Amino acid sequence: MLTALLVPLALAALVTLYALIRSAAQRGMLTPNPEAVVLGAITNFFDTLGIGSFAPTMAWLKFRRLVPDRLIPCILLPAHGLPAMAQSAIYLVLLGVLVEPVLLFGCVISFALGVLIGAPLVIRTKVWVVQLVVAFALVAAASFYALGNLGLMPAGGTAASLPPLLIVVAIAANFLFGILINFGVGHYAPTLVLLSLMGMNPRLCFPIMATAGALAVPGSMLRHIAIGEIDLRIVIGVTLGGVPAVLVAAFLVQSMPIELLRWLVIVVVLYAAAIMLRASLHGRRGVADEVCAEV
Question: Whole-prediction pTM value?
Answer without folding.
Answer: 0.77
